[in-house]
Amino acid sequence: MFTDRIRIYKDIVSTSGDYILYWMQQSQRANYNHALEYAIQQTNAQNQPLLVLFVFDTNFPEANQRHFTFMIEGLLEVEQELKQKNIRLLFEQGDMVSKVVEYSEKAAVVIGDFGYLRVQREWRDIIAKRINKPFICLESDIVVPVEVASDKQEYMARTIRPKIMKRLDDYLIPFLPEIYQGEYLSSYTSITPQDVLKLVDASVKAVASLPGGYSSALEKVEDFLHYKLTNYHLHSKDLVNTNYSELSPYLHFGQISPLEIAHKIEESGAFQDSKSAFIEQLIVRKELAINFCYYNPNYDNYDYINPNWAKTSLEFHLMDNRDYVYSLDELEQAQTHDPAWNAAQLQMVNTGYMHNYLRMYWGKKIIEWSLTPQEAHANMLYLNNKYELDGRDPNAFVGVAWCFGNHDTAWKERDIFGKVRYMNYNGLKRKFDIEKYEEEYL
After folding, report:
1. 3-141 topology per CATH
2. Could you identify which of 3, 50, 288, 376 might form a hypothetical disulfide with 43, taking C-beta atoms 3.0 to 4.6 angstroms apart as the criterion?
3. What is the pTM of this model?
């Protein structure tokens, strides 16, 4: 279960300590969590108690009250689930590295989960340098570990898909939890997570209609299995019938495991075409995004996100006439001439979510209405990361990069876009009842 998921950051002889420390960061759940399960096995084998530490870093890039509220709702549930297992979850607030180093001083071993964004990897690298304890992390938010799937940045989905599918059965194996046998560490003082909300950017409010947490994620899974999966391969792009899972925010915060979802999908009685279509999104596309961010440290820098043909083509058309040019403020306020785009922007601002097909259209129009692709890229990242509950995520960074030709091929050349794929309003009208969508969100 663990072999290919383990990353050894510091391999030294285990020292004595008061507990084994699991630093929970990316995998914010008590179920299907390989890092937690490995920590439980180690504590049982070494006859030591387990302390789970979660640190709220209020300086996390671009995070605001919407993100923190969703995260805290999930963590409060994790706290109760771990308590039922007799495991203490301790909340702290402050500098991530400093707090983990502080609690490592009394730990025999430090175990962590793994994240793929630059800040997450920097945290782990710095912690490894500053502590003098064994430090091990496990990939638990991906089905096929990133380096197992591929040893390089993949060109597009068709190049990584066969590599993932070749190894998929090796990792779609049962998850067998072990019962924790240690004591509950009640003597440590924990902060109140709700107090953290007072310290974060409050300009973007929480979304009451989409609560965070494992139980809410499971409800989404069950709803999807019973009412949406059967015809998913036919209607996954339907804007009106909402034939989508709405699981991306829960996956982003690690509140549910993609492996658990995959198991439930495979065990369902849905058509194989529907299962395959959803597995494509859940595993292949998600892991393609992780592959890009893992092997490209500049995944959020316009100069490094798109292939040369796309960049050259966009630059060649830099001086083309633009019928409309909108400022960031006008975009943020949904003040464009395009009702579908305005509806998509308002859906994101008000609900923290935007349908995936509309995200593509939304991004393409920002390119069309910006003076330069660099400006368009910056504005897209700003809006997406500020309002989307699943923003600041490999899928989000790659979704934006796709609008500029990443993971895509050259198309018919046209003004502004050059050979980068183009989308227009008439295309939406041909595919969907776009007017009904506009009525719902405008």
Report:
1. Rossmann fold (3.40.50)
2. 50
3. 0.96
